[in-house]
Amino acid sequence: MNIGVDNTLTILRHTPPGLYLGTDDSEDVVLLPNKYVPEHYEIGDKITVFLYLDHEERPVATTLEPYIYLHEFALLRVNYINEFGAFMDWGLEKDLFVPFKEQARPMEKGKRYLIYMTMDEKTNRLVGSSKTNQFLKNEDLKVEEGEEVDLIVSHITDSGVNVIINEAYKGLVYKDQIFDETIRTGDRMIGWIKTIRPDNKIDVMLQKPGYENVEPNSQLIMDELKASRGFLRLNDNSHPEDIKTVLKMSKKTFKKAIGLLYKEKLIEIKEDGIYLVKDQE
Questions:
Q1: Dist. CA 207–CA 6, nearest whole Å
Q2: 134 — phi, psi (to 5°)?
Q3: Cys-Cys link to 248, which of 35, 174, 179, 204 (CB 3.0-4.6 A)?
Q4: What single-letter DSSP state applies at residue 256?
């Protein structure tokens, strides 16, 4: 039985407090309190539960799904703060403890922070940390340039957006590659590895690289043209910020996309902007 993750256990017996669960190869048992006991069950059935320590530091099971699992990241809200640290809402009765020494900056009640959940080896207790960089190692990379990856927004700086790649590595999306002004810490999204540098720093893109990215962006432009009565005041000479504001894409991507549309005779490119070919309206 493992703390901090889901376990599939066997229902061994029913008692007044609830069901006792265990495994076939261990004498250890854990209580599933009555409030989480399923309506229909039989002794010997398998049940999937999450294990953590209760207020008395005893292992206990729940069928609730927490917002965060062991060795994962999540954006959590501070429920309260005392002289020992902050206590985060992670979807269970007992809050997740983040000691002061594991806070990247002093936490405030009601605010949300990106947290990594780990195990305190001395107490066997699950604890959180907002000092997330210590859990990210770029020494032994198992990603390649061009690969699609899962991203979590770590924090936003003047250079761009720092991201966590596949919950294992640090990466950066440069400011000129970001076309969505609503990106916030804790957001999850798909990205692509743009460059892996000699020092193993990783540059990340939020748009699919190469020609494969052209077709969806061409469709986006077509949709915008149709919604704008067949005309957009954008062309090859438009300022990158104007293109970013209207279409949420870079000028380079825009030029590739309209080039494809022009080649397929779906649009006309003129000095004042691009026009939808009449039979496409």
A1: 34
A2: -65, -15
A3: 179
A4: H
pLDDT tens readout for residues 231-257: 999 988 889 888 888 888 888 888 888
pLDDT surpasses 90 at 134: yes
Q: Which residues pair with 209 in a beta bridge?
A: none
Confidence (pLDDT) at 56: 84
* Alpha-carbon gap, residue 24 to 43, rounded angstroms: 13
Rounded to 5°, the CA angle 10-12-18 comes to 105
The residue type at 109? K
CA distance 20 to 131: 37
Q: Structure pTM?
A: 0.76
Residues 250/242, Cβ–Cβ less than 8 Å: no
The label of the residue with tokens 């959590």 reads: 76
- Its domain, for residue 181, covers 148-205
The whole-angstrom separation of Cα 28 and Cα 26 is 5
Question: Looking at the domain assignment, is residue 120 inside a domain?
Answer: yes
| Count: domains in the chain | 4
* Three-state secondary structure readout of 7-61: EEEEEEEEECCEEEEECCCCCCEEEEEHHHCCCCCCCCCEEEEEEEECCCCCEEE
